[in-house]
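If you are new to this repository, start here. Below is one unmodified record pulled from the training split, so you can see the exact layout before writing a loader.
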Amino acid sequence: MKLTLQEASDFIGGKLTGDKEMVIQNLAKIEEAQKGDLTFLYLPTYEKYLSITNASAVIVKTGFNKKRNDISYIETAEPNKAFFKLIKRFFSPDFSLKGIDHTAFIDPSVKMGKNFAAGKNVVISAGCKFGDNVKIFHNTVILENVELGNDCLLFQNISIREQCKIGNRCIIHPNTVIGSDGFGYDLDEKGVFQKIPQVGNVIIEDDVEIGSNVSIDRASIGSTRIKRGTKIDNLSQIAHNVVIGEDTIISSQVGISGSTKVGDHCYILGQVGLTGHIEIGNKIILIAQSGVSKSILKEGTYFGSPAKEVKNAFQIEAHIRNLPNYAEKINQLEKQLNELSAKLDNIQ
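And here is the target side for that same chain:
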């Protein structure tokens, strides 16, 4: 990248203090930056690196106390967002996959939009329909009648089962499975588990991004649905007939059981588990490792297993951590009561 610090400041709408003509060589983390690099600082936990960083310039929050005069500063309201804006402008990855590799198998009935690309050993089955600018990387397998919208990016080793529908501008990372059978069984009169047919599909709406090693099961009937703008992190499991609302964040190792509904603008953090057939309302935050066994409809932040409103949950957690002290105090009180009881007996 070749731009001056002033150009970078203008691009992010910042206020520059320092060497306007300095040419930025790279963007880097504050603890790894070298001379000529531009970095950023927005969390107090990283302020310890400011005194030792080798960066030539740093993006800081407006009004930041500038303790070093040997580096330049760009002040802005949100340093992290400003830095990410620069990354997106100058370092957007160029996925160079073009054309259809000769090892790919594509059924003659498949309908492909403009600029379609498929890598090595890709398999695409009959009846599929793809929009423009779709890229499908190596070893991905897509079964019958799958639909992909425009500008979708599918990385290597993905499996998409039959009848699933994926919207525009979706990104799916390696080793993810879309449309595997839901986990449905029924005990017969002999006590033997019989498989319940899973004949539905998965619908993924526009602008969804799905991490690596995610499993999203097809519905038993109807559709498992991931709504517009939702982002799902690695190693998450979405069971059959689940509905995830718009612009919801699901972090790593989350498990959502069958037929549960999650609202819009929710944050479900790492290792949260949700039981089946419940409903999570809009704008709800579930803190990491929470277990949710009942519906939660009131907007707010929840924690614990079973999940409770965070203030209540933290109070309970504090009391649990103090149990050894409580036990000692109880023993002392019991001892005092016994002594008082003995004195009363003597008086009587």
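Two things worth knowing about this chain: The radius of gyration is 28 Å. Residues 314-348 form one domain.
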